[in-house]
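The following block was generated as part of the benchmark described in Methods. Ligand: AR6.
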Amino acid sequence: MSTGPSITLVQGDITEQQADVIVNAANSSLLGGGGVDGAIHRRGGPEILAECRKLRASHYGKGLPTGQAVATTAGRLPAQWVVHTVGPVHSRSEDRSELLASCYRESLRVADELGARTVAFPAISTGIYGWPLDDGARIAVETVRTTPTPTSVQEVRFVLFDRQAYEVFARYAG
Ligand code: AR6
């Protein structure tokens, strides 16, 4: 029987994770921002932004669409690649869950293309983009569990910034 990647949970700062891929909760501009995005560019150094600018000058002239993912170097981070994905802004009037699921699915697809074995994810959209943590955790875990197999990815690690986020993810991933 083929099984998908194992799911692990860590409380901490994603920029300190040793993994093949660190996923960034970016915005469409790919040119940086606050939250995880700010931390990744700060600690990863200017090489990441330089590659993002090249992507904007080539394939992604209008920016990276919501729900899609693209890889760059990880610069000085303890990882090989950063996979940038753009989560949806939460809306009360429109169900954007499929776009959030797409972020996890597309990031895993890119990681698989790179041959990555370990992938660290933040809780995409649950900060500045306002997605309720409980629903964001449910979508994250369900999407990873239903990822197509076989894949090179053996471990998906959710890196949760605080205790509360960790406990909410543990309810779904436990
Ligand atoms: N490590 C792990 N998790 C973190 C870290 C960190 N260093 N920092 C924050 N979190 P957010 P979004 C958690 O706002 O909601 C940026 O400006 C945080 O507590 O980083 O997808 C981008 O450029 C929350 O649970 O991303 C976009 O404009 C989760 O990571 C916008 O924010 C995601 O919070 C994207 O918003």
